[in-house]
Amino acid sequence: MNYRWTLRPIDNEASVGEIARQLNDLPDPLARALVLRGVDSFDAAKHFFRPSLDAVHDPFLMRDMDAAADRLAEAVARKERVMVYGDYDVDGTTSAAMMTTFLRELGVEATYFVPNRFEHGYGLCTAGLDEAVERGASLVIAIDCGITAHDEAAYARTLGLDLVICDHHTALDTVPDAVAVLDPKRPDCPYPFDGLSGCGVGYKLMQATLDRLNLEPERAHPYLDLLAVSIAADIVPVVGENRLLMHAGLERLASQPRLGLLALAEATGVDLEACSTSRIVFSMGPRINAAGRLGDAGRAVDLLMATDPALARRLAGDLDLLNRQRQELDRNTLAEALAEAEAHVEAHDPFALVLHQPHWHSGVIGIVASRIVERFHRPTLMLTGDSGVARGSARSIDGVSIYDALAACSDLLIGFGGHHAAAGVSLDIANLPAFREALSEAVGARITPEQREPEIEIDAPLDLGEIEGGVGGRFWQVLRQFGPFGPENQRPVFWGRDLRLVGEPKTVGKDQSHLKLRVAQRQNGGGSYSVIGFGLAERLDMLKESARTGTPLELAFNVEENTWNGRTELQLKAKDVRPASA
Q: Strand, helix or coil at 109?
C-alpha cells in the first residue's frame, strides 16, 4: 500500500522557536510536536508534562449530574438494592465492576447485569430490566449504554424502577425519560470535555456522589486502574481530562493494581510497572473482551471484582484461553472476509465495503472489520445471521463518520448506533443489496479524494543526530513524557531524510511480513539506528535497489525503547520507508 506523507501544519511557526527557547533550547522537532498538541507556552508545558488530578473538571458541570448524585446518595442513605447494568465490552465490564464495587463499599446491596451478546444484543433490554425487578432493585444504573433507549426507559417506569443513565455514545435530539441522563455528548450538555469513556462518565458520577455524601474525594482513586483500562481499550481520545485520568490510572496500575488486573497481567506477561496504553490495547483488553465475544461477559466482571487471589488467577486463565479461541476464529473469519472484500473491490471499487456470511461469529466481526479497513482503507461493515435479520459491526477511516453515513441509510435499517469511528447495525437480509449500494453512495458523498489514499501525518523532520544520548539522553527523556499515548495524542511521527542503509535489510516474523533494517544519516557520520517496520516487507526490493544505486532514503517513524537480552536501546518504528526521489 502506498501512503501520502503530510507534514502537519502549524498556524504560527514562530511559536516553535519560542517554546523551544522557553524550555531551555529544546530540540526543534520536539518543540514542533508540542505546539501541534496545543502546548505553546511554558505554563502549558508545565501542565502537559506534569498531569495532575487537580486539573480534572467539576463533575457537576455535566447536565443532570445533580439529579444523578442526589439519587445515588439517597440509595446509599436508604440502603436500597441497586442493579448496575453494563455492557459486554471492556468499557462496559470495567464500568460494571467499578460502580458495583463502589456502591458495595458504601453499604449498598448492589449487583450487576451484563447482557449476553447473543441472547440480549447490545444495550438496555427489557429482559435485563425484568431481572432488576426479580432481584428487588429499586434503582438501575445503566453505564456505557442507554443514551438511545427511549422505549426501555419507558418500560422501566412501568416496572416502578428508577433509571440513571451514564453513557458516552452519540445522543439523539432527545434523550430517554429517566431520573438522570449523563452523557457529555448530549447536545444540551455544557461539560467541557466530551471524550470520556463510559467508565469515565461513571467515575464522574462517583466523584459527585462522594461530594453529596460529604466523603473524601480520594475514595474514588482506587478505581483509576479500571478507568485507565477502559480509556485505552475503548479507543477514546487520550487528551484533556482523559490524559490526566489515564496518567493517574497507569500510576495506580504500577503501584496498587486490583487483584483481577494483577492476575490478568501475570497471565499475559504484562509488566504493570511499565504498563502503557498500547499494552492494555493489545494484551489485556482483548482478553477482557473475549469473555463477552464468545459467551458470558460476567466472567470478566467477576475477575475485575475478585478479592481472592486463587479465584483471580483462575478467571484470568479462563479469559486467556477464551482469547486463544477468539484468535482462531479471527484468523478463519479474516481469510474469508479478505476474499469477499477483494471480489467486491475488483468488481465495483465501492466507497464502502459491506460483507456478509451467515456463519460468521458475531463476537469477532468487529475486530475483523478493523483489519479489513487497514487492508483496503475504506469503511467496512461486516454482517452475520441467516434468520432473516443480519447484525454486524462497522468500522471507518479517519475523517469519515460511519455514524453519519448509516444515518443517511437508516430507512433500510432496523436499527443502528455508535459513533464516528464504529457502529453496530441490524437490517433485514432482503435489504442487503440495496443497503450495500446506499452505504457506498453515502460514504462517497462524505469522502474526499485525499481521504481515499491512506495518509501518514508527520509532526516534524528529524536529523538522527538529534537523538543523542540514547535512552539516557535529553531527547528521549523529554519525548517519553509526551505520553500516555492514544487517539489524538499518538506518539510523534518524525521524517528522516537523506538516510543510508547500514548492512543488509531483511524480512522477519513468522510469515516474513515485517521489515528489519538499520539506517544512519548520509552526511553527518553519526551513529546508526535499528528500524523495525511491521507489515512493510513489500519494501524490501526497493531497499535493495536503493543500496545498489546509492539512492538516499526517507523514513517516517516513531522513536521507541526496545529491550532485548537485558539491553535497552532506542529503536525506530517505521510507518513507511521510500526512496528520496518519491
A: strand
State which H helix or E strand residue 579 sits in: strand 567-579
Give strand pairing partners of 57. none
Residue whose C-alpha cell is 489485556: 284
| Enclosing domain of residue 555 | 4-47+459-579
Contact 460, 29 (CB under 8 A): yes
In a domain, 274, yes or no: yes
Q: And the C-alpha cell for 430?
A: 432482503
Contact 122, 115 (CB under 8 A): yes
Query: 489: which DSSP letter?
Result: B
Q: Which residues pair with 424 in a beta bridge?
A: 393, 417
Q: What is the CATH number of the domain that holds 560?
A: 2.40.50.460
Q: Which of 475, 580, 582 is nearest to 529 (CA)?
A: 475
Given a contact cutoff of 8 angstroms between Cβ atoms, the answer to whether 531 and 507 are in contact is no
Residue 499's nearest CA partner among 526, 474, 479, 473 is: 526
Please count the structural domains in the chain.
Answer: 3
Place of cell 520536539: 30
User: For residue 328, is it within any domain?
Assistant: no
Cα separations in angstroms, 209 against 83, 228, 288, 390, 508: 16, 20, 28, 41, 53
Residues 162, 102, single domain; the answer is yes
pTM for the full model?
Answer: 0.91
In a domain, 174, yes or no: yes
Same-domain status, 121 and 155: yes
Last-in-domain residue among 410, 429, 452: 452
pLDDT in tens, 330-388: 999 999 999 999 999 999 999 999 999 999 998 899 999 999 999 999 999 999 998 89
Coil, helix or strand for 577?
strand
Residue 262 shares a structural domain with residue 289 = yes
Phi, psi of 16 (to 5 degrees): -65, -50
Question: Which pLDDT score, from 0 to 100, does residue 387 have?
Answer: 81
Exposure on the CB side of residue 548, measured as CA atoms within 13 A: 6
Give the 3-state secondary structure of residue 219.
helix
Among positive and negative, which fits the CA dihedral 479, 481, 484, 487? negative
Task: Please write the tens of the pLDDT for every residue from 212-247.
Answer: 999 999 999 999 999 999 999 998 999 999 999 999
HEC per residue, 63-90: CCHHHHHHHHHHHHHHCCEEEEECCCCH
Note whether 15 and 35 are within 8 A (CB): yes
User: Among 300, 289, 281, 282, which Cα is nearest to 96's?
Assistant: 300
Q: 295 vs 562, which has greater pLDDT?
A: 562
Q: Name the residue among 191, 304, 188, 300 with its Cα closest to residue 253.
A: 304
Non-local CB neighbours of 27 within 8 Å, separated by 6+ positions: 20, 466, 475
